[in-house]
Amino acid sequence: MKSNRFRLTAYSGGAIDYGFWGRTVIDIEGIRLDPKLPALREHDRPCGVIDRHWRRGGTLWAEGYFSSNRDGQELFDLLGENFPLQVSLGLWPELVEVLEPDETAEVNKTKFSGPLTIIRECHCREISFTVLGNAGTGVSTTFQPTQSAARPPKGEIPMSKPRHDHPFMRLVEKIQEEKKCTKAKAMRQAVRENPVVHKAYIMACNA
Fold this sequence. Notes:
Number of domains: 2
Shape: elongated
Number of helices: 4
Largest sheet: 9 strands, mixed
């Protein structure tokens, strides 16, 4: 009997491109996961359970099993046929750091240069199997629905969208205009001077 379990490399620690957030790295040590979390299909349909996850060598790994419902069984069959499914983490950012072009920082045992957004702390609330994702993320995923591993596809890590109309972003724009500085410097000053407003902004993004 074939096992319904799978194993995947959820995130390999590299830089990814996220529109407004720009070039971004997720600090693997700052990703908070519950002991068990949902495995979803396209971020909205239950298809299984993630019951084990660990960090090793600057990489986030996860294991779980497919449920007996229609989505779980269809994904199991697709992976058995080497269909190139992708993986997407449902992340809710909680602490964000911004690097200037002349600054560097070490994240996931690798040194990165700015400009760069670093998600230092976040809550991963689910892991999804998707058909289409951001092929430029550099996230490798390996599924093992049977004794032989399926073909490793690429994946994405979608995050909450910034709220441009939030008071925090209006404050950033005001500082940027007054100081004639980059958005990164304006955001840093706004976070330092208004931590409560910044926390409210992050919560609004995650809503």
